[in-house]
Amino acid sequence: MFDLDKFGPKKCGITPEKVREIFKNHGEEISHEESRGILEVMCFLAKLAVDQIVNEHECS
Q1: Per-residue pLDDT tens for 17-29?
Q2: Percent helix, strand, coil in the chain (nearest 5)?
Q3: CB 21 within 8 Å of CB 28
């Protein structure tokens, strides 16, 4: 799906540790691996959204 190691947390703007902190603030404890999975999906969806916007502007 999305290779977080290749893309890097700096480009996503958030780290797995920050994801864990956010979930903890909302009463949910998640593992480091779960936070990486959530972050991978989040970054994938963000990149997909940006790609769609760029493609729409190129086609018009």
Answers
A1: 999 999 999 999 9
A2: 75, 0, 25
A3: no
